Amino acid sequence: AQKITQTQPGMFVQEKEAVTLDCTYDTSDPSYGLFWYKQPSSGEMIFLIYQGSYDQQNATEGRYSLNFQKARKSANLVISASQLGDSAMYFCAMRPLNFNKFYFGSGTKLNVKP
Amino acid sequence: DVKVTQSSRYLVKRTGEKVFLECVQDMDHENMFWYRQDPGLGLRLIYFSYDVKMTEKGDIPEGYSVSREKKERFSLILESASTNQTSMYLCASSQSLGRWTEAFFGQGTRLTVV
User: Fold this and answer.
1) Predicted local confidence at residue A2, as pLDDT
2) For chain A, first and last CA: distance in Å?
3) Which chain A residues are closer than 8 Å to B110 by Cβ?
4) Is the pLDDT reported for residue B23 higher than 70?
5) pLDDT of residue B16
6) CA-based nearest residue to B47, from B30, B60, B63, B29
7) Do residue A45 and residue B94 have CB atoms under 8 angstroms apart?
C-alpha cells in the first residue's frame, strides 16, 4: 500500500526564519518520485520541488530544499527565509514508478507571521 | 504556458441533479486525474485515465463516473448529486509512466450541493 503522512496540520513561523514541513511515506516500490506542492488560498496547486528515490543529492529550488532520508522514508520540505507570501497549504506527494497515480498527504497549513 | 483548465470555478447544484465537471489539458499528456479535496483529508483520487477511453477507479469512486473520449479532455460525472459530495474538485494531468514529471493541476472547482 502507498501512504503519505503529514503530521503537522498547522504551523507558524516568523518572517525571515526557516521552517521544516514534515513528510513520511510508505511504499513497496523501489523506485519512486517525491513532490511538494503549495496551495494558496486561491486554490491552485503550485509545484515546488521534486526528488527521485535514486537521486544522490537532496533537491533544491531557490528557497526550497528537500531533506530526503531514504532509510527513514522521510522527505521534509525546508523553506529558508520565510516570506509572508509563503502562507499557504503545503502537500507532499509520491508517485511510484510502476503506478500511474500520485498519492498525497493531508497537508500542512503554514502561517508566516510578520 | 502549459495549462489545465477546469470548466467552472464555482458550482451550486441541487440534490439529485446530474453534474458534469469538465477538464481540458493542452500538454498532450497521457494521464489525467480527478481528485477531491476536503479539509484534513488532503487530496483523494476519484478516478484516473491513462489513455483515451482507458479509465480506472481511484480510492473513492462511489457516486462518480468519468469519460475520456479525447486525449485532451477528462470529464467527471456525479450521477445524482448528494450533499456529501460538496467539496473542492481538482483535475490534473501528467506524462506517462517512467517519466518523472510533476502533475499539473487545474484551478479547481468548488462544488456545493444543496
Assistant:
1) 85
2) 41
3) 43
4) yes
5) 97
6) B60
7) no
B18: exposed, middle or buried (Cβ count in 10 Å: 0-12, 13-18, 19+): exposed
Which candidate from A35, A42, A101 shows the least CB-CB separation from B102? A35
Q: How confident is the model at residue B100 (pLDDT cuts 50, 70, 90)?
A: low
- Cβ neighbours of A43 in B, within 8 Å: 88, 107-108, 110
Dihedral angle computed from the Cα positions of residues B108, B110, B113 and B114, in that order, rounded to the nearest 10 degrees: -170
- Cα distance between residue A108 and residue B110, in whole Å: 20
pLDDT at B104: 94
Q: Which of B9, B43, B110 to mutate to test the interface with A (most CBs of A within 10 A)?
A: B43
**Which DSSP state fits A100?**
S
The answer to whether the Cβ–Cβ distance between B33 and A98 falls below 8 Å is no
Count of CB atoms situated within 10 Å of the CB of A17: 12
Smallest CA–CA distance from B36 into chain A, residue: A104
Alpha-carbon gap: A108 to the closest alpha carbon of chain B (Å)? 9
Per-chain mean pLDDT for chain B: 93
pLDDT at residue B98 tops 60: no
